Amino acid sequence: MKRASGILMHITSLPGDFGIGTFGQEAYEFIDFLVETKQTYWQILPLTTTSYGDSPYQSFSAVAGNTNLIDFAKLVEAGYLSQSDLEGVTFSHRDDQVDYALLFETRRPILEKAVANFLASTEGSQQLGAFETEQSSWLQDYAEFMSLKEHFGLKALQEWDDEKAIYRDQDSLTAYREQLAEAILYHKVTQLFFFQQWQELKAYANANGIAIIGDMPIYVSADSVEVWTQPELFKLDSAKKPVCIAGCPPDDFSDVGQLWGNPIYNWDYHAETGYKWWIYRIQESFKLYDYLRIDHFKGFSDFWEIPAGEETAKNGKWVSGPGIALFDAIKSELGELPIIAEDLGYVDDKAKKLLADAAFPGMKILEFGFYDVTGHSIDIPHVYTQNSVAYVGTHDNEVANGWYENLDKEQQDFVNAYTHRKEGESITQTMLRTLFATVSNTAIASMQDVLDLPAESRMNIPNTLGGNWSWRMTKDDLKPSQKDYLLTLTELYQRGNEDDNN
């Protein structure tokens, strides 16, 4: 990765009229903002579906898209909705927050109208047929899974009322396909809307010199189409329930560790198949993104395995992962790929060796570097390397204002001295200046810090359920002075995108 910079902000956090950020006009305007400030990258969170808890890291599918991101105005332009379909509908009660429960109620009827009008149009059946062919590796299974899930009252796969459906009895599935035909079509067409709108937006970004950094969670949900259709990929019992689950051990941030609940992979099976599913998953990811950040990279060297049924992550154990064999297989099949490794948290020598062997850039978090006032932290900026991606903080960390407020006086003094903080300079300006000055080839600023927002704008608090993933930028948040400061830093520290489009 060349010396450059970009902004981290998920699609859901964009402003707009439909209660959540979408692939609509505001997304195109955000790309224009990136171009104006000479950025190179737009980093987003996973685009896959969200489930209970609204986390993009807990999805019903490793491939299917989040239909909350479909823009209604674009469906009006396409003729599948009329403006009257949107009138009188309440999508949110606050411009700066996503109300997922409200959207769950209000979006579906509108999308059902759009699907019906699409299917009634002359081009609908032709477009759907082509889409079904293009996405044949996953679309039918996903549409059936979601239709059955809704049929069984949105219960998790393992709790469905019909065991034959859980175990994919073919006679039972044939009957359900006929019974749920309308719902299956709905899920197929809304996926078509998602992929059409995203590919148009990505094409606009790329044409303007902006590359998309996407995000791939290491694990998939126990309540997912992959567990339903390919249980051999995971360590499951005969009822497709995980026998062990993923998480991370107790650390300085949590006395009980983190209990994620995802099923652990059957790595022996993956090795026997030449990591075929992983190659497929990476390949599908690069159809969506230009660069790919792989979450929890340490899990490929070794991972924390917790027996199913445990209430905390304390009683887990470290188990060896696939190591470099996985990435050698991916490289052999797909060639060199622009992958970023999320190597945060507990990183031992084994994880460091895997990162070195894979030669992917790792991540550095400025906030982590200042807790130790001796300056000996592995995250202190003066020890960064060029082959890294630096952040003030990620979606899992506090925004700069909240982080600084929670430091003690000695730590704050250390931050101010180390960064040569100037009189009258806000802490967000200080941290952004320090970020852009690092030797790391890539600097990614969170949009909350660019906007100098308070602690309440944090995106996620790990190991908590509820109240996360809801922050949104409002239309009036971005001030000309903030845009000017970002451009100044980008040019001063030689990170400007000098593409002809700028």
From TrEMBL:
This is 4-alpha-glucanotransferase. It catalyses: Transfers a segment of a (1->4)-alpha-D-glucan to a new position in an acceptor, which may be glucose or a (1->4)-alpha-D-glucan. InterPro entries: GH, Glyco_hydro_77. Coiled coil: none annotated. Keywords: Carbohydrate metabolism, Glycosyltransferase, Transferase. The keyword DNA damage does not apply. The keyword Cell wall biogenesis/degradation does not apply. It holds the Pfam family Glyco_hydro_77. One of its GO terms (molecular function) is 4-alpha-glucanotransferase activity. PANTHER family: 4-ALPHA-GLUCANOTRANSFERASE DPE1, CHLOROPLASTIC/AMYLOPLASTIC, 4-ALPHA-GLUCANOTRANSFERASE DPE1, CHLOROPLASTIC_AMYLOPLASTIC. Transmembrane segments: none annotated. It comes from the Bacteria. Belongs to the disproportionating enzyme family. Its EC number is 2.4.1.25.
